[in-house]
Amino acid sequence: MPSLVMSKLHTRQKRKLRMRHGLGGRDRAKRPKTFKSEAAAKKHAESTGRKDYKIVNLKSPEAKSKKLRIV
């Protein structure tokens, strides 16, 4: 006869399902979307209907790559 209680999940299974103590995923705030190119950031800002926006580079000026965020 099968048990009506769910069996305990082991660590690897929890990691695979991204579970927290067998209850579900993490509860955290959404982070702002970032982009690698100014064209992609501009396209996203216009598609979401933003009129007044500013693109900010989150990495240092010496870095080769960019990480851009819309403000």
Task: Describe the overall structure.
The chain is α+β, with helices and mostly antiparallel strands. The chain has a domain at 30-71. It is 24% helix and 11% strand. It contains two helices and three strands, in the order H-E-H-E-E. The protein has helices at 11-17, 38-47, and strands spanning 34-35, 55-57, 68-70. Strands 1-3-2 form a three-stranded antiparallel β-sheet. The radius of gyration is 21 Å and the shape is elongated. The termini are far apart. The mean pLDDT is 83.
Summarize it:
The protein is of the alpha+beta class and 71 residues long. It is built from two helices and three strands; from the N terminus they run H-E-H-E-E.
Please name the defining characteristics of this protein.
single chain, 71 residues, alpha+beta, 2 helices, 24% helix, elongated
Q: What is the topology?
A:
Elements: H1 11-17, E1 34-35, H2 38-47, E2 55-57, E3 68-70
Antiparallel strand pairs: 1-3, 2-3
Radius of gyration: 21 Å
Range of helix content:
10-25%
* Low-pLDDT regions: none
Mean model confidence by pLDDT:
83
Count of individual helical segments? 2
Number of strands: 3
User: Outline, from the CA principal axes?
Assistant: elongated
Order of helices and strands: HEHEE
Strand order of the largest sheet: 1-3-2
Ends apart, CA distance between termini: 59 Å
Tell me about the biggest sheet? 3 strands, antiparallel
> Which class best fits the helix and strand makeup?
alpha+beta
Residue fraction in strands: 5-15%
